[in-house]
Amino acid sequence: MKNMIEVKWAFIFIMMTFLWMLLEKATGLHDVNIEKHPIYTNFIAIPAIAIYVFALLDKRKNYYEGYMSYKQGVITGLIITFIVTLLTPLSQYIILTFITPDFFTNAINFAVENKKMTLIEAQEFFSLKNYIFQSLIGAPVMGILTTLIVSITTKKLK
């Protein structure tokens, strides 16, 4: 199990994402409070960063016997990021098909009614294809940045 630490934390990350989306839906950010969605959805960064911290601390404690270099932390974080990125299309499909199937309709309606986009622009932007594409860019970019920063704080040299 020692060599599966990155897989474990990647799955924890994906589960957190599902729970976050359930929370967003439960608080109305995908329907009645959709105008607040662009602000509050960014708070997912807090548990996301925390998961990377816990993952690197877990790796340091249980694989590297209490010590871990910056490079070892970066490698661990990059592996987690790679796994999360691979799972992103499936997780986006599950979220947008089963957890919040009306999100796109609600987002399109809100954008058009508030003259933020034309109907065609909104339909192109709020689509499964576009969200999967965005997440395939966003997941590695944010994962790499988080990894580079968290690795500084979790290193412990002998």
Concise synopsis of the structure shown:
The chain has seven helices and no strands.
Can you give a write-up of this model?
The chain has one domain (2-154). The protein is 75% helix and 0% strand. It has seven helices and no strands. The longest helix is centred in the middle third of the chain and has 30 residues, at 70-99. It is elongated.
- What is the CA-CA span between the terminal residues? 24 Å
Strand-pairing-aware structural class: mainly alpha
Shape field: elongated
Main beta sheet strand tally, sense and closure: none
How many separate domains? 1
Radius of gyration, whole Å: 18 Å
Mean pLDDT: 97
Strand content: under 5%
Helix content: over 70%
Helical segment tally? 7
Number of strands: 0
Low-confidence stretches: none
> What string, H for helix and E for strand, traces the elements in order?
HHHHHHH
